Amino acid sequence: MRPGVPAPVAICVAICVVFAAARTGRADDQARRQVAVIDLSADDTVRALADSLYRALNRSDVLRNPDRRGFESSLTGPLVDEDKVHVDSARDHRVAARAQLFTSFDAKAAEKEAGAGEVELQAVTPTAETRALYAELSLVHGLALLDRRDAVGAACAFALTHRLDPTTQLDPAQYPPDITAAFQHAIEAAPVMAPLAVSGTGRLWIDGRERGDAPGTFDVEVGDHVVVLTGSDRETTGAAVRVQGTHDAVDLPDVPASDPRRVERARLALSRAQAKGDDAARAGAMKELAALLGVGDAVMISKRADGKLQWETWKDRAPGFSAPKLYTNQQPEDLLEGLAPPAVPKPVEDTPKGPTVPFVRAQPLEGEQSWYQRRWVQASAATGLAAAIIGAILWARRDENVTLDHDVKGM
Q1: Would you say 342 and 327 are in contact if contact means Cβ atoms under 8 Å apart?
Q2: Cα 320 to Cα 323: distance, rounded to the nearest angstrom
Q3: Cβ within 8 Å of residue 156, ≥6 positions away
Q4: pLDDT digit string, tens, across residues 151-171
Q5: Which of 63, 174, 302, 389 could form an SS bridge with 40, CB 3.0 to 4.6 Å?
Q6: C-alpha dihedral sign at 153, 154, 155, 161
Q7: Got the DSSP string for 21-86?
């Protein structure tokens, strides 16, 4: 009589072995620190270096790639300045508006071009440059309205021009007296203040200057204003509003920024802080970027003043940033070396005196794994064991017509 084998029991044993090996692998993954590769050079040739670092992280026993995937393209290649497209477009509209007004003498077309340029700038974070550009567009807008006999609209546009750029003046040699007088009257008029309620969340900018956090109510002059909301976690949105002193309000919807967009912003901020040598801004941008990526370690590649590549590491613990080093085609493992936990030296065994020296088995260094502890060895062994068990069962039952739903009994 041949001994019987309970088929379901054997299959369950094999599956348990495989899952036990998988759990061991997952535990090892949790112990390995996640590392991001950040390119601040905006050099396309760095993509190959970044890829080699990712492969080295896959081979490492103590480091690994970030769990949050999909940001690789946001961390290499050209730095994305989301405002540049809008600013460039606004410049084009300024040129077109001036050409329509002073060359084609088409005030209506000039008004349209100037208004389109203003809309472009309502989608950017205000700077001194964009304030001056908006002031130029508002001036052309006002001149076009004045030519079309809209004195009130022109006065509002001229006053906004002055608030954006108080240095703006009309050259009497270029403009006739009636136009220069209208401009001067608008900017010298005594301001009348009124409350403006702003809905939406984010950092509030009115006429290109920070006014605090929204939502809220803010005192402004009666007349035309440009209101913008910004924030690292939202899309920049803005609007033009005419305040008349009668329960004026502007509603700017909350538009969350996508995660890749937020990574692009933090990377750009990090690059600009590094270029300026602003250590505080660099530390803040790196902390924000690390939080978005879910990492505590990073390798950064940037360019020196002479155009050569350099690299440095960052940890979310002391000492933070390492000193930058010149990149001279080092191996990827060399760039990651400063992030790996230091190896613990093997203890020195005292050699006993006498003719006989007892054999001492070398102990693996702390942080390293013996060959039989590596995840791929365990996984392969588990898979082989499962296959062997199942194969043995099938061989033993080769002459029997049974299914896995029945116990196999020997005869």
Answers
A1: no
A2: 10
A3: 142, 186, 223, 224, 242
A4: 999 999 999 999 999 999 999
A5: 302
A6: positive
A7: HHHHHHHHHHHSEEEEEEE-S--TTHHHHHHHHHHHHHH-SSEE--SS-S-HHHHSSSPP-HHHHH
The encoded tokens of residue 365 equal 């260094």
Residues in the chain: 411
- The per-residue pLDDT for range 203-255, each reduced to its tens digit, is 999 999 999 999 999 999 999 999 999 998 999 999 999 999 989 999 999 99
CB of 243 closer than 8 Å to CB of 225: yes
Q: Please count the CA atoms within 13 angstroms of the CA of 410 that sit on its side-chain side.
A: 7
CA distances for 162 relative to 128, 168, 184, angstroms: 14, 6, 10
Strands (E), 167-296: 193-206, 209-221, 223-230, 237-243, 248-251
Are 333 and 373 spatial neighbours (Cβ–Cβ below 8 Å)? no
Contact 317, 338 (CB under 8 A): no
Task: For each of the domains in the chain, give its residue range(s) and CATH number, in order of start.
Answer: 82-189 (1.25.40), 191-257 (2.60.40.1120)
The residue type at 337: E
DSSP code, position 323 = P
- C-beta separation of 232 from 217 below 8 A: no
**Tokens in use for 303?**
């360019």
Residue 70's pLDDT is 87
Sheet containing strand 297-303, strands side by side:
63-64, 33-39, 297-303, 309-315, 325-326
139 with 161: CB under 8 angstroms?
yes
Our CA angle for 306, 38, 36, nearest 5°, is: 145
